[in-house]
Amino acid sequence: MRQFPLEGLEIAPGRVVEWRLRSTRRSEEGGGPEGARKSASFNQDKHFSVVEEARKANDSLASWLAVTFEVEGPLDRDALEAALLFLARRHEVLRCEFQRLAGDLSCGAIDADEIALDVVEMGEFDTTTELRAFMSDSFQKQIDTLAWPLFMMGAVARETGSSTVYMAFDHIVSDGVSMPNVVNDIQTAYAAYKQGREPVLPVAGSYLDFAHEQRSRYLSLEADDERLDYWKSFMAGNGEFFPRFPLELGIEPGAMYPTMNEADMLLDARETEALETRCREAGGKFFMGLLASVGTALHTLGGPASYRGFMPVSERGRGPWTHSVGWFVNTLPIEFAVGKEQEFDELIAGVRAGFGAMMGSLEVPFIRAWELLAPEHFALRTWPYPVNFFSYMDMRRTPGAEHHPQWQPTAHVWASAANGTCSWFQRDVSGLHMNSIYVDTPEARRTMGSVRSVLTETLRATARAGVLRREPAAVS
C-alpha cells in the first residue's frame, strides 16, 4: 500500500455509484441525550477550530484523506452497500456530529441502528482523466469539517475485471493509519455478505472513548507540570517550540501558498531489505536508519549538524485500538546529532537515543503542549513557519497487508494550501516510497528536488554497504 497524489492513480473507467450516509432519527428527537455526548479529542478540537476561523475569514482552507482499492469481479452492489453500512456502524467516530457547547467542542454519535445509506447514480465515465477529475471534485465538495457526514464513499463498477471502491474522510474522524483498517474491514465484510454470512473481525475500540480518556487526563495539565519537561528541554536547544525546516522554500512570512503534491520510489524491495540489514547491524530499526539518512541529506544541503524535527507517532498501543478508525496520532519533537564525519553506527545510536527520550513523553498531547508552551502561536490556523516534519509507516504490518497485492490499496492526501513542507514515507512489499506536499514556489521545487536526490543517494549508499556486509568472505 502506497500514498501518492490522486492524480497519479491508474483507475479504469466505469459506471460510478455513490452512497450517502443518512440519519433515520426523527428530527424531533434532536441530537440525542446530553449524557451521550462526549468531549472531542485535542486533535479534533484544534482541527475544528482552525476550519471555523478560516470560514469566518473567508479562507478556503480545506483538506481530505482518501483511499481506493479493488474488489474482484463484477460488483455486487448489495454486498458492498452492506459492507459500507457495516463500516459506519462498527466505528462510532464515523457517525459523530460535532457541536460547540460553552466553548468546548463536543461530539455525539448517532446510534448504529439509526443510520442508512442512500444510493446516488453518478453515471458512466469513459476516460481515466475524467474519472480522476470527478473524484477530486467530489472529495472537495463533500468533505467539510463543519458538516455531517464527515466521510463519503463510492465505487467504479465494471462488467469485467475488478471494480474500484473509493472513500474520502475529513481528518477529524480519521488518520493515515486508519486507511488500511478501512480497506480490511470493507473487504472482509464484502466477502462475507457475498457469501450470505455476517463478517467476523477483531474488536475495534471507539475513538470517542479514547478521546474522552485523553481529555480527562490532560485537560488540567499546567505549564509547570513535570510531564512537559521533555518539551521544555527540546525548546531550550531549539530556541522555540516548532523545529524549523532548515532549507529555503522561497516564501513570505505569514503567507499561504498553493501546494505541490509529489511521490517517488526511493528504494526498490532489494535495496530496502539491504538498508534494513545495515540498520540492524548498527543496532537500530529501519525507520531509524531512514531518519538518520533524512538528517544527513538535510545537513549535506546546508542544514545544521543537529537534526530537530516533529515526528507523528501512533497512540494505538494504549488500548484496543489496533483495528479502530480515528485520529490516534500524537506529534513529538526529536533531535540528534548529524554530520558528514559521523559513521552510520554513530548516527543510528544518536537516533535511537533521541527516539527513546521522545517516547517517554508519548502520552502528552501535542495540542496541549502547544497551547501551554507556545500560546503566542496557538490561535494561528497553521504552524507559524515551515516546520521540519518526518512520518514513516510500514504498510506491511497493517491489518490485511497479506492481501494488498490483490486489493491494490492506495492512500491519498490533499491540502488546498500550505506554508511549508510535509513528507510521509511508506514501506510496502515493493520498496520505500516518499510522498511530499509543499508550497508551490520555484525555490521550494528546487529545494525538494535536491532533498529527494540527495536522500535517495544517501539511502542507496547505505543499502549498498548492507549488501556488501552480507556477502561471504572470499575463499583463498
SSE diagram, text form:
Elements: E1 2-3, E2 14-23, E3 38-39, H1 42-56, E4 63-71, H2 77-90, E5 96-101, E6 104-109, E7 115-125, H3 128-142, E8 151-157, E9 163-169, H4 178-194, H5 207-218, H6 229-238, E10 259-268, H7 269-281, H8 286-300, E11 306-314, E12 329-337, H9 344-359, H10 366-373, H11 375-378, E13 390-394, H12 404-407, E14 410-415, E15 421-428, E16 431-439, H13 442-470
Parallel strand pairs: 1-14, 13-15
Antiparallel strand pairs: 2-7, 2-8, 3-6, 4-9, 4-14, 5-6, 8-9, 10-16, 11-12, 15-16
Helix pairs in contact: 2-4, 7-13, 8-9, 8-13
Notable traits:
476 residues, alpha+beta, Chloramphenicol Acetyltransferase, 2 domains, 7-stranded mixed β-sheet, 13 helices, 36% helix, 24% strand, phosphopantetheine binding
Work out the count of structural domains: 2
- Strand percentage: 15-25%
**Structural class based on helices, strands and sheet pairing:** alpha+beta
Spatially, the strands of the biggest sheet line up as 1-14-4-9-8-2-7
- Assign a percent range to the helix content: 25-40%
Protein name: Condensation domain-containing protein
Domain Condensation: 63-366
GO biological process, one term: lipid biosynthetic process
GO cellular component, one term: cytosol
